Amino acid sequence: MPAIVRSVLAVVAGYAAMAAVVIAFSVALKQVAPNWMGSEGAPNSTYVVTNLIYSLAAAVLGGYVAASIGSRAPLAHACALAGIVFLLAIVSMMQMGDKQPRWYQVALIIVGTAGTVIGGLLRARA
C-alpha cells in the first residue's frame, strides 16, 4: 500500500474510532439519563463533565489508532488527526455560538486535541 494512502487511512480510521465512541456514549447517555442533556445546546453540568471524560477517552483512542496504522511515523499521524480535530472543534464552536458555555467549547478543543496527541504518544512508546 502506498505511504500516502496508509497515512490518509490512519487519520480517517483514528477519526472514525473517535466518532464511534462519542456517538455510542452520547446515545447511551440519552437513553439512560435523558435529563442530563438539558435543552437544545444547553447541557447541564453533569452531562458536561461526563462528555468531557468520554471525549478524552475517545480522543486518546483515536490518536492511538492513527498512530498504530501510521506506524512509520506514529506521532505524526496522531498530530495530523489532532489538527483536524482542532479545526473541526473551532468550526463547531463558531456554529454553537452562545448556546453552550464558552469554557466548555474551549475545553472540548483542548480535550480533543491533547487526547489525540496523548494517544499517539502512548502508541509510539509501546
Short account of what is shown:
This protein is mainly α.
- Helix share bin: over 70%
Number of helices: 4
Kindly give the count of domains: 1
Beta-strand share of residues? under 5%
Which structural class matches the secondary elements? mainly alpha
User: Tally of extended strands?
Assistant: 0
What is the average per-residue confidence, as pLDDT, rounded to a whole number? 91
Q: Which residues sit in consecutive blocks of at least 5 with pLDDT less than 50?
A: none
**N to C succession of SSEs:** HHHH
Q: What is the makeup of the main sheet? A: none
Apparent shape: elongated
End-to-end Cα distance, whole Å, is 24 Å
Backbone CA Rg: 15 Å
Explain this structure:
The two termini are 24 Å apart. The chain has helices spanning 3-32, 45-69, 74-96, 102-125. The chain is mainly α. The mean pLDDT is 91. α1 runs antiparallel to α2 (45-69), α2 packs antiparallel against α3 and α3 (74-96) runs antiparallel to α4 (102-125). The chain has one domain. It is built from 4 helices and no strands.
